[in-house]
Amino acid sequence: MPHTPAVARTLPSLHRAIDKLRARKARVALVPTMGALHEGHLTLVRQAKRRCDKVIVSIFVNPTQFAPHEDFSTYPRTWKADIAKLAAERVDLVWNPDVKTMYPDGFASRISCEGPAVADLEDRFRPHFFSGVATVVGKLFVQCRPDIAVFGQKDYQQLRVVTRMARDLDLGVKVIGITTVRETDGLAMSSRNVYLSPDERRVAPTLYRTMKACAKKIRAGDDLVTAMTEGAALISGAGFALDYFEARHAETLAPVASLADGPIRLLVAAKIGTTRLIDNIGV
Fold first, then answer.
1. Catalytic residues, which ones?
2. What angle do CA 35, 37, 43 make, to 5 degrees?
3. Fold that domain 191-282 belongs to in CATH
4. Averaged pLDDT score across all residues of the chain
5. Which CATH number does 6-178 carry?
6. Distance between CA 141 and CA 143 in Å, rounded?
7. Cβ contact 188:212 at 8 Å
8. To 5 degrees, how large is the angle CA 136–CA 143–CA 66?
9. For the whole prediction, is pTM greater than 0.90?
10. For residue 25, is it left (φ>0), alpha (ψ between -120 and 50) or beta?
């Protein structure tokens, strides 16, 4: 029999639906998304289903994490396709609030994070971003009351910020990071990949190939600074405008000088054409 997930758009309907999911002490997982779902999102859903009895997927394009010059108004919105994909995965509930539900008139509170949120990575270029992310994710955790929340590792600094926030604020949610899902040529799956022209799409996997090559050199004992400098030159030479290419401690995101300072994560953000891509791998 075809499965259609329940859809809640108001807080009372969400709470009623969650009460039903919680019957018989079911464990509940939340997968927060902004829609435009791809195989990476669906992998998160499958991992959530492996870990819990019931799965909620939120679809909300959060305006507070976009700067005025960013792509909030044009961010891909594919509701019908998203629901069809979630139905095929047998998701139990979709939480799809509108902006006024999440940020009603007079809304005046924000979650301000330090630690990994001020690591001089994404925050250097998007200073508004992590307050917006932390606030919306904090609200989603309170609204949905999940036992676990599943995030992709592609947005690695975001994962570290959300993990720290949930722990620091005693939100009772275990945050789980899932390995980045990639295209066959290594490009990290992202809703923004649809912006790439055919030529840009061919060049885009350079980020992953360069990170892999640098990680291999660092593991082999090569000088970390030299390996990263050479990698940055390769990325820029391929036609990217590089925002950062950094080696950081995988937990704290503090700078590292050698393999002995590890565990190490390589993180990159670069623009090709008008599309900004981010990625990361462990060393």
1. 41
2. 125
3. Pantoate--beta-alanine Ligase; Chain: A,domain 2 (3.30.1300)
4. 96
5. 3.40.50.620
6. 6
7. no
8. 15
9. yes
10. left
